[in-house]
Amino acid sequence: MAKHGKKYRAAAQKVDPDKxxxxxxxxxxxxxxxxxxxxxxxxxxxxxxxxxRKADQNIRGSVVLPKGTGKKFRVLVFAKGDKxxxxxxxxxxxxxxxxxxxxxxxxxxxxxxVVATPDMMGQVGKLGKVLGPRGLMPNPKTxxxxxxxxxxxxxxxxxKVDYRVDKSGIVHASLGKAxxxxxxxxxxxxxxxxxxxxxxxxxxxxHYVKGISVSTTMGVGVRVAYTA
Length: 228
What we know:
By secondary structure, this protein is α/β, with parallel strands linked by helices. It has helices at residues 6-14, 23-32, 82-89, 98-105, 121-124, 128-131, 149-158, 182-198; strands at 41-48, 60-64, 75-78, 94-96, 113-116, 160-164, 170-177, 209-216, 222-223.
């Protein structure tokens, strides 16, 4: 088991694991444990009153964070004809059809996000076992299966994050970089939470948001106070 550094231990001493902090204080405490070696992501975990085994409660979608994510993504696009030209002009790292499917099948993975036009999904479906486990499979619910490839690429670069409830009813997402200001991270947080509340399934019973915590990638988890 890896030992935590001095900065982590010092930050951990400031955090009461049983206390729920106001949002900006929680973000500030989480930022304090950021490693000095690199600029970590500031992540959020939202526990929801959902049973992902029920189709109508297996929520999934995407949201554009107003302050961005602080990341530049390499976007791969499966398209042909005019849409291939459009994707290249919008800054896609690679664009193609069957040839590109074969390239990925052969082990090439130099990309971070994938977009496909609907007419290409027949071929892209062959990559399910490669892209699926990595969370990279294009999906209409996240806006990555579309003929508007220019907009899809622009949204990804502007700060679009995908969300999906996991088997235990938790949504994990990045709110940006730990170097962002508390105010910017708080704005991104609020946008994500508002989106999750809007997509609450009608069949979800009781308190929908059961718990929220924020942390840097390698940092201390801090519980956030939430009132509906």
